[in-house]
């Protein structure tokens, strides 16, 4: 009967939902979906020559039936998230927007790449880095941890005239050009004094940094403006010349950024203004028209890992909404609430005076 069919369909959905909840509950930890306390952690080689510790042996014993079904969980979790991913997807990889599409086998592959960073951005950045290089390189010496960095200072001193001779061809704006001459000139005379004395005092290094700060921040401003303008143009090319209207409307972006520059990074700010229908609205998950991009840091620099992160967002938004009516619940450590409650018992807050 139709009632029996409806009942079976409901039971099937319920069973699938229970399985998904089990998958999702075991998949989350503070700050990163990949660092769940219940996730199988693969050993990763490090510069120390030692592998990163993984799970305890009991949690990796494949002969244990509970471990075996947990292995199935990992496969189900990954496959479900991969199936939910749209196509195409754009990954911001350093200076390029890289378009990834599913091929006939369903796997993602590169379709094309579009640069969005002008040469001016890098030239301004690299001139600014000269001062940072010296002050950072002198840091261990000034702290008494290393000897005077004679080789660094000598090679920089010898290289500055060569760099100086290229500046006119790099910077067409007279004001910007003069600023670069000024930055390099300050460094040059700092090096003259340092190499003559075979020593640098801490206040001299601080004085160099502070004397350069305002000009370097003007370089930062000009570099940012140049990159924003080119990024906007590149996004318009992507929207008007590369993608179909429905592809653009459903497009998702993965923004790579450095760990330290994650907050308010330039590309994310541009995307929040241009991609969301209302940039003032919060991100409510992949079914919300405002949800268009995620960010990831230097720990995840390859496309496979980027896609893995994105598929985790899809399963987490879906599961959070299904079970908790909160798309973001699984973006917090699943242990967070219980941990907070128990720790409050162990370590009660002192009474207010």
**Radius of gyration using CA atoms only:** 27 Å
Q: How is the main sheet built?
A: 5 strands, mixed
One letter per element, helices H and strands E, the order comes to: HHEEEHHHHHHEHEHH
Structural class: alpha/beta
Helix content: 55-70%
Strand content: 5-15%
Envelope shape? extended
Mean pLDDT figure: 80
Between the first and last Cα atoms, what is the distance in angstroms? Answer: 69 Å
Work out the helix count: 11
Give me the side-by-side strand order of the main sheet.
Answer: 3-2-1-4-5
Poorly predicted regions? 1-44, 279-284
Number of strand segments:
5
What can you see in these coordinates?
This protein has about 350 residues and is of the alpha/beta class. About 55% of the residues lie in helices and about 10% in strands. The chain has a five-stranded mixed sheet with strand order 3-2-1-4-5, sandwiched between helices. The chain starts with a helix and ends in a 7-residue tail after the last helix.
């Amino acid at each position: 009967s139709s009632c029996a069919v409806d009942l079976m369909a409901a039971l099937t959905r319920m069973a699938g939902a229970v399985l998904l909840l089990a998958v999702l509950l075991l998949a989350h930890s503070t700050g990163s979906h990949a660092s769940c306390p219940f996730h199988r952690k693969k050993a990763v080689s490090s510069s120390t020559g030692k592998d990163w510790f993984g799970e305890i042996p009991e949690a990796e014993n494949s002969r244990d039936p509970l471990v075996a079904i947990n292995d199935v969980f990992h496969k189900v979790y990954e496959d479900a998230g991969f199936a939910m991913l749209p196509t195409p997807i754009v990954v911001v990889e350093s200076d390029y927007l890289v378009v990834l599409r599913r091929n006939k086998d369903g796997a993602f592959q590169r379709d094309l790449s579009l640069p969005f960073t002008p040469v001016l951005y890098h030239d301004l950045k690299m001139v600014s880095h000269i001062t940072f290089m010296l002050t950072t390189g002198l840091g261990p010496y000034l702290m008494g941890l290393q000897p005077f960095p004679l080789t660094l200072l000598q090679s920089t001193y010898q290289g500055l005239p060569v760099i100086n001779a290229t500046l006119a061809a790099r910077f067409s704006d007279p004001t910007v050009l003069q600023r670069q001459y000024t930055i390099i000139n300050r460094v040059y005379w700092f090096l003259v004094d340092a190499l003559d004395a075979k020593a640098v005092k801490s206040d001299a290094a601080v004085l160099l940094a502070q004397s350069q700060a305002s000009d370097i921040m003007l370089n930062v401003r000009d570099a940012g403006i140049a990159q924003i303008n080119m990024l906007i143009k590149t996004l318009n090319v992507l929207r008007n010349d590369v993608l179909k209207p429905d592809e653009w409307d459903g497009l998702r972006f993965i923004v790579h950024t450095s760990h330290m520059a994650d907050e308010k990074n330039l590309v994310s700010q541009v995307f929040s203004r241009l991609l969301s229908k209302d940039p003032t609205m919060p991100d409510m998950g992949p079914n919300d028209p405002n949800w268009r991009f995620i960010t990831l840091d230097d720990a995840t620099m390859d496309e496979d890992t980027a896609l893995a992160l994105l598929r985790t967002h899809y399963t987490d938004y879906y599961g959070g909404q299904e079970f908790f009516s909160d798309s973001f619940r699984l973006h917090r450590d699943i242990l967070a609430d219980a941990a907070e409650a128990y720790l409050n018992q162990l370590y009660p807050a002192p009474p207010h005076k």
